[in-house]
């Protein structure tokens, strides 16, 4: 029924666009016949609005995967390099939170591990909104930063790496069986903000799925019981995402497994010095405004990656100004 409703909405939108286009053409023809420039301009303005709406609809057609409409979890992990990479991981966490805010999505921080001096070692976000997973699923991979280090007294240029991992939130209608005997459950004290209670009780929960090595953690709630329940939900989601990836790899006859956090494995480079450039190494899409990208302007990169995944090409994708 959900699929039927979605298809009916899409068909109705297309028919509405067709009718609006016919009306706009008629308006322009009428203005041309009567020599009325204002009427012609009105019709042209309607066509420009139709074009923008059609482009938005075109992107939405790329979000047709099995779990694309779901909420999503997003993990950020720092790579080797200590404070540098931990600061970069925190910058990425902020970037995705800003992107989510631009789309009207809700963001919850489920788990965070603070760095020793600055930044974070890792964090897990829950991003809630229609098509959240569909938009973010191509962001999984290693992200590389090149800049003059604010932590280097000699002001030398440093390269830092951090990884992003995205997997969908699964609802009750998707049955994922997990054998608890194959899992190790650890409790520990949460870190970060949260008041006296969160730092003085072992309320945080970490679950390790031994057959796959998947690890999830949650420290969002004051109650260990609630954190445990949320962690189980996250584990089921990770196992579901792994199964989706297997199906996709089989269908596309390609392997896209998780890579090491380092050289040769990155999907996108963010260069702040000696020049300003963000470039996606999969699609070739680039931006000369890394400040805007780090502030959440990610849609052109996501759209190109989605098009490449669906059509196997990034044709007609332009650079971002």
From TrEMBL:
GO terms for cellular component: cytoplasm. It holds the Pfam family RF-1. Residues 189-205 form the Prokaryotic-type class I peptide chain release factors domain. Keywords: Coiled coil, Cytoplasm, Methylation, Protein biosynthesis. It comes from the Bacteria. Residues 7-34 form a coiled coil. Methylated by PrmC. Methylation increases the termination efficiency of RF2. GO terms for molecular function: translation release factor activity, codon specific. The keyword Protein biosynthesis applies. Gene3D superfamilies: 3.30.160.20, 3.30.70.1660, Release factor (1.20.58.410). It is found in: Cytoplasm. SUPFAM superfamilies: Release factor. The modification N5-methylglutamine is found at residue 196. Peptide chain release factor 2 directs the termination of translation in response to the peptide chain termination codons UGA and UAA. Belongs to the prokaryotic/mitochondrial release factor family. PANTHER family: CLASS I PEPTIDE CHAIN RELEASE FACTOR (PTHR43116:SF3), PEPTIDE CHAIN RELEASE FACTOR 2 (PTHR43116). This is Peptide chain release factor 2. The lineage of its organism: Bacteria, Pseudomonadati, Pseudomonadota, Alphaproteobacteria, Hyphomicrobiales.
């Amino acid at each position: 029924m959900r699929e039927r409703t979605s298809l009916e909405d899409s068909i109705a939108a297309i028919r509405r666009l067709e009718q609006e286009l016919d009306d706009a053409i008629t308006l322009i023809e009428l203005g041309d016949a009567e020599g009325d420039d204002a009427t012609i301009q009105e019709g042209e303005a309607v066509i420009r609005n139709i074009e923008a709406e059609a482009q938005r609809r075109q992107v939405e057609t790329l979000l047709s995967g099995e779990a694309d409409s779901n909420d999503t979890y997003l993990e950020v992990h720092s790579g080797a390099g200590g404070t540098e990479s931990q600061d970069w991981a925190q910058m990425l966490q902020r970037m995705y939170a800003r992107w989510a805010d631009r789309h009207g999505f809700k963001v919850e921080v489920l788990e965070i591990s603070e760095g020793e001096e600055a930044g974070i070692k890792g964090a897990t976000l829950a991003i809630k909104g229609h098509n959240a997973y569909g938009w973010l699923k191509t962001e999984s991979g290693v992200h590389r930063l090149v800049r003059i280090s604010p932590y280097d007294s000699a002001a030398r240029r440093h390269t830092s790496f951090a990884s992003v991992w995205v997997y969908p939130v699964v609802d009750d209608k998707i049955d994922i069986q997990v054998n608890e005997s194959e899992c190790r459950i650890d409790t520990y004290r949460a870190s970060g903000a949260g008041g006296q209670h969160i730092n003085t009780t072992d309320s945080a929960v970490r679950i390790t799925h031994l057959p796959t090595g998947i690890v999830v953690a949650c420290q969002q709630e004051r109650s260990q019981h609630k954190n445990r329940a949320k962690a189980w939900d996250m584990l089921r989601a990770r196992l579901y995402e792994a199964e989706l990836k297997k199906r996709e790899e089989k269908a596309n006859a390609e392997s896209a497994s998780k890579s090491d956090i380092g050289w040769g494995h990155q999907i996108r480079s963010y260069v702040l010095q000696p020049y300003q450039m963000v470039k996606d190494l999969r699609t070739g899409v680039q931006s000369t405004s890394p400040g805007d990208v780090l502030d959440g302007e990610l849609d052109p990169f996501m759209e190109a990656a989605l098009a490449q995944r669906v059509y196997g090409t990034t044709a007609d994708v332009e650079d971002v100004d």
